[in-house]
Write a structure and sequence with these properties.
This protein is mainly β. It is built from two helices and twelve strands, in the order E-H-E-E-H-E-E-E-E-E-E-E-E-E. The protein has a six-stranded antiparallel β-sheet. Strands 4-8-7 form a three-stranded antiparallel β-sheet, with no helix packed on it. The longest helix has 10 residues, at about 20-30. It is globular, with a radius of gyration of 14 Å.
Length: about 150
């Protein structure tokens, strides 16, 4: 997992072939103006825009998730948004087995760590990062960039 601000995104271009495409899009787009939906960037990279109500820890616990086929870059546009995290290797309680079609697996473990992102900050979740997004009060506008592993 990596946490940083969009202004430092260039530092991460070399970590994965899709990061440059993703971060250049994020840094050249007026993110507040984006409507809910999915934007295809090519090479399997897609951006999911959402503007939803923040959830309680109990509600968010239903989606303590990880992915096998994609890396997530999650960007808070309007928040703050709190998230939970735990290393996948330390998770013991599978809630829903891996769904290859939707690329997710859910755990019922408790996160080890909680952190908050403010506007313009991002987190990168790799397949080994189990994460619980959308904790908070009020509306949270965010982007999730899905980058094929």
């Amino acid at each position: 997992m990596i946490i940083d601000t969009l202004r430092n995104a260039e530092r991460y271009y070399s970590l994965h072939r899709g990061f440059k495409t993703a971060f250049e899009y994020l840094n050249s787009t007026h993110l507040n103006a984006l409507e809910n939906g999915v934007i295809e960037l090519g090479d399997g990279i897609r951006v999911i825009v959402s503007n939803d109500a923040g959830r309680s820890k109990e509600a968010a616990a239903q989606t303590f998730e990880c992915h096998n086929q994609n890396i997530d870059i999650q960007v808070t546009i309007h928040g703050p948004e709190t998230m939970g995290w735990k290393p996948r290797a330390d998770c013991q309680n599978v809630e829903s087995p891996y769904n290859a079609e939707k690329d997710y697996m859910f755990y019922s473990d408790e996160p080890d760590t909680f952190f908050s992102l403010n506007n313009g900050q991002f987190v990168i979740f790799f397949p080994e990062d189990v994460h619980m997004p959308m904790l908070g009060e009020g509306a949270i506008k965010k982007l999730v960039v899905k980058i094929p592993v």
